[in-house]
Amino acid sequence: MKKKIKVVVLMGGKSPEHEVSVIGGSEVVKNLDAKRYLVSPVVISKTGSRWTLTDKKSLLALRDTLSLRGTGKEIVLAKSRALKGVSGVSSKGVDVVFVAMHGPFGEDGTVQGMLELSGIPYTGSGVLASAVGMDKIMFRKVMVSENISVPKFVTVKHGENFKHVHKVLKHPPYFVKPSDQGSSVGASIVKKEKDLGRALKLAHKYSGTALVDEYVKGIEVTCAVIGNERPIALPVIEIKPLKGEFFDYESKYTESGAEEIIPARIAKSLTKKIQDMAVKVYKAIGCRGFARIDFILKNKKDPVVLEINTIPGLTPMSLLPKAAKAAGISYPKLLDRIINHALSK
């Protein structure tokens, strides 16, 4: 009988996306094939100081996890045992860690560096790609150096005078967001100059530096990529927000928040162009395993890269599993591929 692979699924953490991470991590735990894997779910607290080992039943019994967002309240598990951080994980004799974390202290290279030091294989991109992918300013600089189209933008540090925004970008609308967050946390559209200060205040709540983009009007699309040395692009998804003006947090994580059309309602030649660009972005950053690249189609025909997600959402509402399904890859098979890529690094 073939020996089962020991997988620790790491979720939660010190990030505004804590709850989304737990939901995604739960979905991973639920869909990992019990015949192939021995699964140990580990939830990191919102402070980052407590690592809790739980079991599948306790984790999947959680309800209304998103309701805890912004409250500071920790998720309560029916069964739990404290671990001594990453050393507690390594003491379990783990074969691979499935990182189901998002945002700072999860998707930005910090956890990846810790696992590298411990010599534990893990899913997704390495330290450098994770750090660059999370830092939207550095990511944009890499894109510019690779001649990949991105929106015109300026940065505003916390407490800095922002008169230069108007000089560079001229008149609104602008799109304002923190420079190192995901899931559209702290993001907003500015339609009038008098509202820019309020938008920057919101962005600075989550980051010391805000990114102010020219507002590019067009069709929102996204393209996931999976693989290591020979990555492949999955079907392009068209996104039509229903709850907000853009694909914000609520649109992403609530039922009927957005209409997601697979494949996107665009020409085959444009689909191919987007997929090729997505793979180019993936390689330029040095990604491994999986990622998702977000675009806006300027004038409905010119792909402009907005950002990369080196650990895309893994919840039932998330785009990566939907794209994989459209490509004939079930959620369990997608997880198999991600883990295989981690073990073959």
TrEMBL record:
<feature type="binding site">
    <location>
        <position position="307"/>
    </location>
    <ligand>
        <name>Mg(2+) 1</name>
    </ligand>
</feature>
<dbReference type="GO" id="GO:0008360">
    <property type="term" value="P:regulation of cell shape"/>
</dbReference>
<comment type="function">
    <text>Cell wall formation.</text>
</comment>
<dbReference type="InterPro" id="IPR005905">
    <property type="entry name" value="D_ala_D_ala"/>
</dbReference>
<dbReference type="Pfam" id="PF07478">
    <property type="entry name" value="Dala_Dala_lig_C"/>
</dbReference>
<keyword id="KW-0460">Magnesium</keyword>
<dbReference type="GO" id="GO:0005737">
    <property type="term" value="C:cytoplasm"/>
</dbReference>
<dbReference type="GO" id="GO:0009252">
    <property type="term" value="P:peptidoglycan biosynthetic process"/>
</dbReference>
<dbReference type="InterPro" id="IPR000291">
    <property type="entry name" value="D-Ala_lig_Van_CS"/>
</dbReference>
<keyword id="KW-0547">Nucleotide-binding</keyword>
<dbReference type="GO" id="GO:0071555">
    <property type="term" value="P:cell wall organization"/>
</dbReference>
<dbReference type="GO" id="GO:0005524">
    <property type="term" value="F:ATP binding"/>
</dbReference>
<keyword id="KW-0067">ATP-binding</keyword>
<dbReference type="InterPro" id="IPR013815">
    <property type="entry name" value="ATP_grasp_subdomain_1"/>
</dbReference>
<dbReference type="InterPro" id="IPR011127">
    <property type="entry name" value="Dala_Dala_lig_N"/>
</dbReference>
<dbReference type="InterPro" id="IPR011095">
    <property type="entry name" value="Dala_Dala_lig_C"/>
</dbReference>
<feature type="binding site">
    <location>
        <position position="307"/>
    </location>
    <ligand>
        <name>Mg(2+) 2</name>
    </ligand>
</feature>
<keyword id="KW-0479">Metal-binding</keyword>
<feature type="active site">
    <location>
        <position position="183"/>
    </location>
</feature>
<dbReference type="Pfam" id="PF01820">
    <property type="entry name" value="Dala_Dala_lig_N"/>
</dbReference>
<comment type="pathway">
    <text>Cell wall biogenesis; peptidoglycan biosynthesis.</text>
</comment>
<protein>
    <recommendedName>
        <fullName>D-alanine--D-alanine ligase</fullName>
        <ecNumber>6.3.2.4</ecNumber>
    </recommendedName>
</protein>
<feature type="binding site">
    <location>
        <position position="309"/>
    </location>
    <ligand>
        <name>Mg(2+) 2</name>
    </ligand>
</feature>
<keyword id="KW-0436">Ligase</keyword>
<keyword id="KW-0133">Cell shape</keyword>
<keyword id="KW-0573">Peptidoglycan synthesis</keyword>
<dbReference type="InterPro" id="IPR011761">
    <property type="entry name" value="ATP-grasp"/>
</dbReference>
<dbReference type="GO" id="GO:0046872">
    <property type="term" value="F:metal ion binding"/>
</dbReference>
<keyword id="KW-0963">Cytoplasm</keyword>
<feature type="domain" description="ATP-grasp">
    <location>
        <begin position="140"/>
        <end position="340"/>
    </location>
</feature>
<feature type="active site">
    <location>
        <position position="17"/>
    </location>
</feature>
<keyword id="KW-0961">Cell wall biogenesis/degradation</keyword>
<dbReference type="InterPro" id="IPR016185">
    <property type="entry name" value="PreATP-grasp_dom_sf"/>
</dbReference>
<comment type="similarity">
    <text>Belongs to the D-alanine--D-alanine ligase family.</text>
</comment>
<feature type="binding site">
    <location>
        <position position="294"/>
    </location>
    <ligand>
        <name>Mg(2+) 1</name>
    </ligand>
</feature>
<keyword id="KW-0464">Manganese</keyword>
<feature type="active site">
    <location>
        <position position="318"/>
    </location>
</feature>
<dbReference type="GO" id="GO:0008716">
    <property type="term" value="F:D-alanine-D-alanine ligase activity"/>
</dbReference>
